[in-house]
Amino acid sequence: MSHVYVMQEDSGTKQLERIACGDEDKELQLLLERNLNLLPGDQISPGQDLRWLLIKREMPVVNPSTGDPWWSVDFLVVDQYGIPTIVECKRRNDTRSRREVVGQMLEYAASGRHYWTASDFRSHAQNAAGDEAKLSTKLKELTGSDTDPEDFFSSVEKNLQRSKMRLIFFLEDSPLELRSIVEFLNGQLKDMEVLIVEARQYQQGGSRIVVPWVFGFTEEARVAKRESRAETIRTSVVKGEAAFWEFIDDAPSTEGWRDRLRDFIAGAVAIPGCEVTWQRSCLVSVPDVVPQKILFAVRRDGYLELYLARWQSLDVGITEEQIAARDEFFKGLESTFGMKPTELQASQYPQLAPKKWLPKADEFQALIKRISSFSSADVR
User: Fold this and answer.
1) Helix, strand and coil in the chain, % to nearest 5
2) What dihedral angle (degrees, nearest 10) is formed by the CA atoms of 92, 93, 99, 100?
3) How far is CA 354 from the centre of its chain?
4) Among 245, 252, 251, 257, which residue's Cα sits nearest to residue 360?
């Protein structure tokens, strides 16, 4: 697609003037931030029409040598199936848009796979959306159904850990050398997609026209990745109690703690005022104390995820009973799991591994009972 034409009334054509990007941040990165649909989902995955949610612009990348943030990804977005997608923007006259940029992108992916978590994704996405309610709305628009954020971002983390991700070079124009490298990688990688999206800009009167086009997928590569993509789509929609326990029973990694996990959830269900709902995870709430808020979740991998952000958002119209319940909950987490007060105040969705929280499951269950005792008609 080297030229774009406008058809005139006499069926003649006029070639549009090509415009080069002069300011990468203003004309390329800002363009994409405000128009994520310039990543053409119908071309990237024909028949599925992918949609996008921004997790974070300038997503920090950890340097494995030091453990400190060292680089940043231009964009981290995710599609409706929970596939994390790294996007790097480059000008067409950027001499780095060849081997160096490919190596940089793979380095980002390798680091992110080890250091990014569901909690990170959720926190950043909530900040990008504006607040928790807006994130829930965006997730519903993304997935087409009511989707629990904890479930969704847990699946994003799982896909990342399995290297089910997408790497996209967002460019004005791509050199043949870069296309060759990308096509080669796509042919070799089963779960990871490496693509180029060209966003060529043209002038028509006082307006600019942007034409996005995808490079990198040969038909051979599409066939090779078909099974992996189908498995991702299939697992992204399996929810409910039966699916939860089926996953627990089938996973070899759950050996040794699955019985204790069953006992804990059964005990939580029996606590007066405590409610359990099932998505991809087991979600526990105490609605008489914190209406329409989740207290914590038990994930399919056994991790305990604490919804501390829900408690921190109770400042408007909070009752004395809710203040007392929150203080008791935070104090209990500090004494049970050794979580520091500063950590409790700063964290939004901290996660505890099974080996850390399940040995103290009885103490944690006792804490839930104490929280449920703060129930009051005034809280409703």
Assistant:
1) 45, 20, 30
2) -110
3) 22
4) 257
CA pair distance 271, 17, nearest whole angstrom: 69
Structure tokens at 94: 């950027």
What gap in Å lies between CA 351 and CA 324, rounded to an integer? 23
Distance (Å, rounded) from C-alpha 279 to C-alpha 244?
Answer: 8
SS3 168: strand
Largest CA distance in the chain: 81
- The pTM (predicted TM-score) of the whole model is 0.65
Contact 228, 164 (CB under 8 A): yes
Residue 296 to residue 282: CA distance in whole angstroms = 9
Place of tokens 């326990």: 245
From CA 249, how far away is CA 259, in angstroms rounded? Answer: 10
Mean pLDDT computed over every residue of the chain? 82
Mean pLDDT, residues 153-178: 87
Residue pointed to by tokens 């409706």: 80
Question: Cβ–Cβ contacts within 10 Å for residue 207, how many?
Answer: 7
pLDDT at 86: 95
Sequence-separated (6 or more) residues with CB below 8 Å from residue 63: 69, 70, 71, 111
Q: Which two tokens stand for residue 91?
A: 């000008």
Summarised one tens digit per residue, pLDDT across range 179-224 is 888 888 887 787 888 999 998 888 888 888 888 888 886 656 665 5
Q: What is the pLDDT of residues 67-94, one digit of tens each?
A: 777 788 999 999 998 999 999 987 666 5
- Phi first, then psi, for residue 104 (nearest 5°) are -65, -45
For residue 214, the surrounding DSSP H or E stretch is strand 207-215
CA distance readout (Å), 70 to 108, 230, 327:
10, 35, 36
> How far is the CA of 181 from the CAs of 78, 216, 257, 319, in angstroms?
24, 9, 45, 60
Q: Quickly state the pLDDT bin for 117 (edges 50, 70, 90).
A: confident
Instruction: Please name the residue ranges forming H helices in the chain.
Output: 30-34, 41-44, 99-115, 118-129, 132-143, 149-161, 176-188, 219-236, 241-250, 258-270, 308-312, 320-337, 341-346, 354-357, 361-372
Residue with tokens 């996007």: 87
The two tokens of residue 16 are: 């549009």
